[in-house]
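Blinded run. Sample ID left blank on purpose so nobody reads anything into the name before looking at the predicted structure. Input follows.
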Amino acid sequence: MTDYAALKKKVDELAEREWDLAGIQARINKMVAEGIPRKKLDPKEMLANKEQILDRVQLRAEEYNFTFKNCAQGTALALMEEFGLGNMEIIKALAPFPGVGGTGDMCGGVTGSLITFGLYFGSDNPLDLSIMGDPKKNPILIAQKFMAFFEGQIGHMYCADIIETVILGHRLNPGEGAAAMMTFASEKGFEKCGLPPGMGSRLAAGFIIDSMK
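Blinded prediction complete.
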C-alpha cells in the first residue's frame, strides 16, 4: 500500500534541498565530453553493497532531474552511469519523454527505467529472441513487474496523477504551455518532482542487482 505520508515528507525535503548545481553540471559535462564510463560489474560486490548503490542512484536521479528539468533523462542517466550502460545519445533521445510528450501520461521515472532495462537485459542482436523464454532475462516481464512495484510505491504511474496526489496536491500539467510551466516552477515542482525519478531509479537498480543472484 502506498505510504502517502512518507511520500509527502520526501517531497518536502526535496523542496528545501540545497542543490550543488555546479558539481552536478560538472559531472554531466564530463560524461558529455568523455562518454558514460564502461564498467565491469562484480555481482558479489554489487550484492554486498546493494543499499549503498541504491542510495547513490536515487540521489543522482533526483539531482539529474532537477538539472535537466526532465524526469526521463534524469532517471535513465543515473542508472546508465551506475551500471556503465549506453551513451549520451540515448539521453538526448529521451528529451520529449516526460509525461510522454508533456501530455501527463506515463511518468519519466518509469520510461527512463524501462530504457535501462532494455540496455541491460536486452539482446545485442534484435533477431535473437531466446531471452524471451527466460523470466529472469526477459525485459518485458521484468518491466511489467517493475511497473507494478512502482505504482504500488507511488500510487500512480501517470505524470498528471502523481503531480496531483503526491507532488503538488492539485492538478497541473506543466507540459500544457509556458504559463503552466512557470506555475509549476514557482511551486518548486522541479525540485519536488525528483521523487518519481529517485524512487523509480532506486527500484530499477534493485531489480538489476537482484538479477545477479
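Unblinding after everyone has recorded impressions. The radius of gyration is 17 Å.
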